[in-house]
Design goal:
Blueprint: E1 10-19, H1 21-27, H2 36-51, E2 61-72, E3 75-82, H3 88-96, E4 107-110, H4 113-125, E5 158-160, H5 161-165, H6 176-182, H7 196-201, H8 205-229, H9 235-251, H10 262-269
Parallel strand pairs: 1-4, 4-5
Antiparallel strand pairs: 1-2, 2-3
Helix pairs in contact: 1-2, 6-8, 8-9
Amino acid sequence: MSQAFSSDPILVFDIETVADTDAARRIYPQLAKLNDADTLSALTAIRIQEAGHDFMRLPLQRIVCISALYIKDGTFSLFSLTADKFSEEEILAKFFRAFNDIAKLPKLISWNGSGFDIPVLIYRAMQYDLAAPWLFEEGERIKNMRFDNYVNRFHTRHLDLMDRFSQYGASRREAMDVVASLYGLPGKTDVDGSMVSELVSNNDWQTLSIYCESDVMNTWLIYLRWLRLTGQLSLPDFAVWQQQSRDYLTKFAQVDGTPRHQAFLNDWLNSRSLA
């Protein structure tokens, strides 16, 4: 096993969201008597007028899926928490369990986690009076986390690859799809973020969760390249971790026995980056 990874687990994550029409009706009194569809239309118009685009304010992003890859001692576990099975409060509470044990805190890996995912987690969790003290600890209680915590963007306990690649905003922040495609990884397939609301409306939770899990896997594979670039992963170990990732996805099956991420595997195996 590679020396790049300590005994600490690794957690690569991504979230998917839709507009929170209930919260919108509380924030904008003129929407109070509208149904969900009309609220969404009016909210979109308000947002375009406010900002020139329809991307909702972060507090109005309701979490409908969190997908994560958990790696411990070389063992992979890819999973999704979706709103067809759990309330938003339950999704958050289950995700926060990864940060319950101070002795087993994971290294957190994301793409734009500092700019989107973590702030959304904060806004949404505070609605339900949830607590994740070690995720937001800055050394007040645990002294050795003063210079090694998830909050400070220049620490590495949470590595936001998008932020790091742009030199913390000194250069343009690129979409993960662009970077993944550059490296011969699958990137986005037939689904993108603009389709999440429609997938939720159609109760197509399988497509949504597979899409979110694919983003997680792209992030993980980009992270391996980062470790290689920064000298934390030898070339043989890099090849081993890639092969372990392919092997895991090949065995990760749906109920009918077919690989859950066959499209991802097909795109990856056909890329020029693989031997």
